[in-house]
Specification:
- By secondary structure, this protein is mostly helical.
- Helix content is 81%, strand content 0%.
- The chain has 6 helices and no strands.
- It has helices at 3-6, 11-38, 47-70, 77-105, 110-133, 137-143.
- The relative contact order is 0.14.
């Protein structure tokens, strides 16, 4: 366990706060982009492609924010970026599938799929970012 996880009022709480701030900003970027691309009159994109494009835009901000602010990682981009891309691809798949099911399949409004994505993906991401993407290389080697 990293020392910052054990410090009451220390690293864990600060990290969670930073994660929340970066996550909220990323989520807002996603939601605004998805809304603008899918819900405004004259928009050419259906809900699922709009969601994917919005997710990709938010992912650029998310990687930089979590690497440099949340986890303050000194790991190489060559090590961390591919892992982040894989995690993002999982979220991207979810952001594609959910609108297909909810909007195209069940006929709900796009805002419902946007809201679900905005809740589920960040919770999953924190766990994976902390334990695998930005985890110290020594801890990853010890676990394998």
């Amino acid at each position: 366990m990293r020392p910052d996880r054990m410090m009451p009022g220390g690293g864990l709480y600060r990290r969670l706060s930073r994660f929340a701030l970066i996550g909220i900003a990323s989520t807002l970027i996603y939601a605004i982009c998805a809304f603008l691309l899918s819900a405004l009159p004259g928009s050419a994109l259906p809900a699922a492609p709009a969601s994917v494009v919005a997710y990709i835009i938010a992912a650029f901000f998310s990687y930089a924010g979590h690497k440099y602010v949340t986890f303050v990682s000194s790991g190489s981009h060559g090590f961390e970026a591919p892992r982040f891309i894989l995690l993002t691809a999982l979220g991207l798949g979810f952001s594609w599938l959910l609108p297909l099911i909810l909007v195209n399949g069940l006929g709900t409004r796009p805002v419902l799929s946007i809201a679900v994505i905005c809740v589920v993906v960040p919770a999953f991401n924190y766990f994976v970012l902390d334990r695998w993407v930005f985890a110290p290389a020594a801890r990853i080697r010890a676990a394998s």
